[in-house]
Amino acid sequence: MKILGIAGSLRKQSYNRGLLRAAQEVAPSHCSFEIFDLKNIPLYNQEDEGTLPEGVAHLKKSIRAADALLIATPEYNYSIPGVLKNALDWGSRPYGDNAWDRKPVAIIGASPSLQGTSRAQYHLRQVFVTLNMHALNKPELMIGSAQDKFDADGNLTDPKIRQKLAEILAALLSCIQKTV
Ligand SMILES: Cc1cc2nc3c(=O)[nH]c(=O)nc-3n(C[C@H](O)[C@H](O)[C@H](O)COP(=O)(O)O)c2cc1C
After folding, report:
1. Confidence band, pLDDT 50/70/90 cuts, at residue 180
2. Does residue 44's CB lie within 6 angstroms of at least one atom of ligand 1?
3. How is the chain split into domains, by residue range?
4. Phi, psi at residue 147, to the nearest 5°?
5. How remote is the CA of residue 127 from the centroid of ligand 1, in Å?
6. Nearest atom of ligand 1 to the alpha carbon of 117
7. Per-residue pLDDT band at 127 (split at 50, 70, 90)
8. Helices 54-65 & 82-91, crossing angle to 10 degrees?
9. Is the CB of 11 under 6 A from ligand 1?
10. Its pTM surpasses 0.85
11. What class, spelled out in words, does domain 2-179 have in CATH?
């Protein structure tokens, strides 16, 4: 089983990138867990759909090779960060060549606020409808007050959240088995 993790943040000390590293650590030994870095994805331009930019072609290949996805989203202005939306848009194009189609996906997220990315996560679920992805409903993981649960390098320090990540991966893996 191959899981692909994508964080909607480019910064090194990102809580959401740290969350994916922790998920990678707790992933069961029979599954591989790769993290895709969005730093090489240019801004979407329909004129470039004919010959996809290298980073985008790599993203689409990685999505297609994965059995399931784990998306860690920050919340920007009550919604999905542009970096993540841009990658979702690229992955769905050109029309008729949607790499996200029918992929099982789980959503997680961390932010310093009390709401812990809940608003961004529900916006993301809405986008997954048009992308025709199979989003896991529960368990949900919305981490508020992230500064108390990660160290200065963005590494997760809270063992309860580590346990929750293991539960989400288990649910995601069973979702793959049902959708194959
Ligand atoms: C443009 C911008 C808008 C933000 N809006 C929100 C928000 O609506 N809700 C929230 O919880 N945090 C918001 N934040 C704070 C982010 O949650 C915080 O920067 C977080 O650390 C980003 O995730 P990362 O650590 O993975 O980079 C915002 C940050 C930026 C830069």
Report:
1. low
2. no
3. 2-179
4. -60, -20
5. 19
6. 11
7. very high
8. 80
9. yes
10. yes
11. alpha beta
